[in-house]
Amino acid sequence: MIRVLIADDEPMIRAGVRAVLAADGGLEVVAEAGDGDEAVELARRHRPDVAVLDIRMPRVSGIEAATRIREAAPGTGVVMLTTFGEDDYILRALSGGAAGFLVKSGPPEELIAGVRAVAGGAAWLSPKVAARVVAHLAATGAGGAAGRRATARERVAALTARERDVLAHLGAGLSNGQIARRLHVVEGTVKAHVSSILARLGVDNRAAAAVVAHEAGMTAAPGPSGQ
Predict the structure, then answer these.
(1) If DSSP states are collapsed to H, E and C, what string results for the chain?
(2) pLDDT tens, 113-130?
(3) Cα separations (Å) of 200 from 114, 155, 157, 195?
(4) Rounded to an integer, what distance in angstroms lies between the CA atom of residue 4 and that of residue 8?
(5) Is the Cβ–Cβ distance between 214 and 130 less than 8 Å?
(6) Which residues contact 145 (CB under 8 A, 6 or more apart)?
(7) Are strands 100-103 and 2-7 parallel, antiparallel or unpaired?
(8) 133 near 215, Cβ under 8 Å?
(9) Among 43, 89, 138, 199, which residue's beta carbon has the most beta carbons within 10 A?
(10) Quick one: pLDDT band at residue 138, thresholds 50, 70, 90?
(11) Distances (CA, A) of 88 to 5, 56, 132, 168
(12) Alpha-carbon span 157 to 10, nearest angstrom
């Protein structure tokens, strides 16, 4: 059973997220918070597997809450809920250690998939969020879209062929176990490759590596659940 904390300042949104998660018998909502400060306290108390946080909340934002939750409950993965027009917030949350990013207007099954992926230690970027992040980076970075794409491909070129395979699957939201099954290797080998990828790309977490994969245009097909 995957234990989940929900935090959003809008009760109706919380109710909707809870209803979606309740449709999956393997997910259990153990706590709900109306702001980031309460979310941190509840995460400390309940130690959920995943915290689903609204990116903007009163008192303490989802971004700050994500950072504090990662410190108070290191075993809790963080999924951020966002809307369009919040690209700067997404980038800040990415730097804060959030592992998943979903849009509130996305399909319900995407929320379930994202929570399950993050609970399994994977990064999960909604395709819409990934596209927005890449477009935002292209618009604000030197050289525009072509420059960002070329830079990402140069960074990826420094990886070994096997590391590029692992990165492509990581960018598609697969966990270490799923990547291992895809590539017919043991999970420990994938874990070692991921550590090397993060170091070579100069990023702090899987979600940031997934952004590089999307920028380079090299994500693999997600495939059936659990594969």
Answers:
(1) CEEEEEECCCHHHHHHHHHHHHCCCCEEEEEEECCHHHHHHHHHHHCCCEEEEECCCCCCCHHHHHHHHHHHCCCCEEEEEECCCCHHHHHHHHHCCCCEEEECCCCHHHHHHHHHHHHCCCCEECHHHHHHHHHHHHHHCCCHHHHHHHHHHHHHHCCCHHHHHHHHHHHCCCCHHHHHHHHCCCHHHHHHHHHHHHHHHCCCCHHHHHHHHHHHCCCCCCCCCCC
(2) 889 989 988 778 776 676
(3) 26, 8, 10, 9
(4) 13
(5) yes
(6) 135, 138, 139
(7) unpaired
(8) no
(9) 43
(10) low
(11) 24, 12, 10, 25
(12) 44
Of the listed ranges 122-126, 131-135, 163-167, the one predicted with least confidence: 131-135
**Structure-block tokens of residue 72:** 């108070």
Angle at 78 (CA atoms; ends 77, 81), nearest 5 degrees: 150
